[in-house]
Amino acid sequence: MKQLILGGARSGKSLLAERRAAASGQRVVYLATAEARDGEMLHRIAHHRARRPLEWECVEETLHLADRLHQLATPDTCLLVDCLTLWLSNLLFAGRAAAQAEAGETIDCPLFAAETSALLETLPRLPGQIILVSNEVGWGIVPMHPVSRLFADEQGRLNQRVATVCDQVTLVAAGLPLELKSPAAGA
């Protein structure tokens, strides 16, 4: 089963994902996409680490998510990816997309295009359980900065595309889950 859990900052989406992973009864591998580039991110990473069970394996992957999922997925494993938002940001800045947006150019970033396409092609074929966490960033005002607008637009597009290949999609607000898409009855 493939799940997408969406929500805003501090909505409870990661906590819900962790609870579902723990309830899976499978070996859990936590796939972290964050890069600790400042003190605030170091603190966030430490917070997530502290609440995870010690027996969970943690693997870091900042760019090549589809390849790493392919390497780790097995029928008896639950992979928890936290989160697609940071992964997308990593892609936009590691490639040329952010610089192109800043310069007002058309976005033509092979890294971004290849990695997002690879994720969408790989997800449906993976064995085991996959839980993906992502931020819902499109409910606020339209950002003024071109890179921020690019990010918000691409995050919305990525969430839509990932939702189409997932069996279950849950929106979390104020710690409360709302099922947007559920697995077929009896599946």
What features would you highlight for this structure?
187 residues, alpha/beta, seven-stranded mixed β-sheet, 7 helices, 7 strands, globular
Task: Describe what this molecule looks like in 3D.
The protein is 44% helix and 22% strand. It has helices at residues 13-23, 39-51, 65-72, 84-94, 97-102, 110-122, 146-165, and strands at 2-7, 27-32, 57-60, 77-82, 129-135, 168-173, 176-181. It is globular. The chain has a seven-stranded mixed beta sheet with strand order 3-2-4-5-1-6-7, with helices on both faces. With 187 residues, it is of the alpha/beta class. The mean pLDDT is 92. The longest helix has 20 residues, at 146-165. The termini are close together. The chain contains seven helices and seven strands.
Helix-strand makeup class: alpha/beta
Order of helices and strands: EHEHEHEHHHEHEE
Helix content: 40-55%
Terminal CA distance reads 10 Å
Number of strands: 7
Low-confidence stretches: none
Specify the oligomeric state: single chain
Largest sheet: 7 strands, mixed
Q: Output the number of helix runs.
A: 7
Average pLDDT works out at 92
General shape: globular
- Rg calculated over all Cα atoms: 16 Å
Strands side by side in the biggest sheet: 3-2-4-5-1-6-7
Beta percentage is 15-25%
